[in-house]
Design brief:
It is a single chain. The chain is α/β, with parallel strands linked by helices. The chain folds into two domains: 4-142, Rossmann fold (3-Layer(aba) Sandwich), CATH 3.40.50.720; 145-305, Lactate dehydrogenase/glycoside hydrolase, family 4, C-terminal (L-2-Hydroxyisocaproate Dehydrogenase, Chain A, domain 2), CATH 3.90.110.10. It is 42% helix and 20% strand. It has ten helices and 14 strands. The strands form four sheets. It has a six-stranded parallel sheet with strand order 3-2-1-4-5-6, sandwiched between helices. A hairpin with a 2-residue loop joins strand 13 (261-272) and strand 14 (275-279). Helix 1 (12-23) crosses helix 9 (227-241). 48% of the residues are buried.
Length: 308
Amino acid sequence: MNHKVTVFGAGFVGATTAQRIAEKQLADVTLIDIIEGMPQGKALDMMESACLEGFDAKVTGSNNAADCRDSDLVVITSGVARKPGMSRDDLLKINAGIVGSVCDAIKTNAPNAIVIVVSNPLDVMTYLASIKLGFPKNKVMGMAGVLDSARFRCFIAMKLGVSMRDVDAMVLGGHGDDMVPLVRYATVAGIKVEDLISKDRLDAMVARTRAGGAEIVNLLKTGSAYYAPSSSTVEMVAAILRDEKRALPVAAWCTGQYGINKMFVGVPAVLGKDGVEKIIELKLTPDELAQLKKSADHVLENVQKLSL
């Protein structure tokens, strides 16, 4: 029996996520959006590509939130995208209402699902989803660290002229301007990036990683990133549905790890069939730890604005 994944939000991020899930044969996909005809049209378009792309997964579109019923996994991309000049935090109250209503539907119709939140501001929306759903904390997480790490890896590979596949890097913290790219842990084929790139160049890459989403928003002018966000989400979906035990940076519920308690923030975690199965505690320097706690404090400030 095929897995079932529901993607809420048929915009660029949601639709591309659905497409990648189907093309990788990870699950049958239900794409849900409030705009009449849009999820149905995009789903049909994807299905008409199946014989060309060689996949048999089924993609269906719906305007009925209840069609998420019996999903094994749900991805929430619903919400308003950023525009030039906006921060992720500017979307706070608008998207809180949207994500909250989506969670009501998930709780009623897919009570056993694992939920991945992609809507911004991501860490806060993940916290909100957890409260609304009431699911075990390991079954709710946010996609951010995989994307931020991918951006950091991309900039390193482009600078050195090496294959993207040979670059490893990890970004922790909230999905915002105070995220924490861990330069010490970045490598190219096992070689420390610090041995290959000067400190000032690395500092510039860290700054560019933190502003990675805004850079794309400013270039597009009428939208935000969706290719890399969808790929990052699908990496998490695959790790869970295939029980791969991948060590990936995700917005996970911390219970004292890194000195962070009762908060969703980006940390390295093992993902498998039970969702977040373990949080990995890296040995951080005092400065790295201070940056991570500062990022978590920013998340907490925005959570408190919602009066949950």
